[in-house]
Amino acid sequence: MPASSLENVVIIGSGPAAWTAAIYAARANLRPLVFEGEPVGTELPGGQLMLTTDIENFPGFPEPLSGPELMERIKAQAVHHGTRVVSELVKQVDFSQRPFTITPNYSEPVQAHTVIIATGAAAKWIGLESEIRLAQQGGGVSACAVCDGAMPFYRNKRLAVVGGGDTAMEEAMYLTKFASEVVIIHRRDSFRASKVMANRVLAHPKVRVIWNTQVTEVIGNEFITGLKLADTVTGAASELEVGGLFVAIGHTPNTKFLGGQIDITEHGYIKVASWRTATNIDGVFAAGDVIDDYYRQAITSAGTGCMAALEAERWLAHHGIEAPAAAGE
Fold first, then answer.
1. Fewest CB within a 10 Å sphere: which of 35, 136, 233, 299?
2. Global pTM value
3. Active-site positions?
4. What confidence tens digit (pLDDT) does each residue in 2-26 have?
């Protein structure tokens, strides 16, 4: 791709927000270019859904489908309408002058009139080989109870939640609808969560807390059967039989490559205007989990992707830029 290529819309990311934005931009004849990223550790193009085995809450699919299958279908729809894809991460952007410059890992930089950032947020994991392996193969380890907890696999079982913040409290309360017991494992002797949330959890008859404890191993070959634990004060080892593990220790928005050029919240998520996707830089929009620390669902991400594409289209029209991009023509 020549360094002089000038795009109408560049979309950075490859989750539901990115591909939905691409569908809308492509159908508007804007010929969007998507940088979908590349595998790095547990991070795969397609985002967190690539670690989800069965999805039952995405509209239009009465039968469960896997996260990778859903992402493949949404991507195929975007490509069908004319989206072009580069399978590289973006290592740097320059929003200081127009047109904007986007520099990928290996290819030549491209320039763009508008940019949609949909790079998502990476779930924080404990860091155990057994944990990651079972998460990747659908073996009963997850980083999202609202996404996965209602699946038949987890019903009427003892489920463990690791964490001590508001997210962990919300995950635990959600799981009480389906589990026989919810065990919260926390490495300290008190929660970081708000007092209201913590008290609500502690008062629930299905919830038990194991304080001053960390998970040292997830037991199970194909599916989780239990956890190895260690007391953070005494070091004493123990085991807990569980039918599922939900890691709720937070997410890290994927914004490092922006180099501080975009305003972010105190939690690291990109700031956007209320009920909009516009950032502090005119012509740069953001969508999906990179702006959302509350819902974090595939369908809400897709919705904001739609919004970002419509805003980019209107921005281009307002500035008299309506012809197809010159790249490749």
1. 233
2. 0.82
3. 144, 147-148
4. 445 799 999 999 999 999 999 999 9
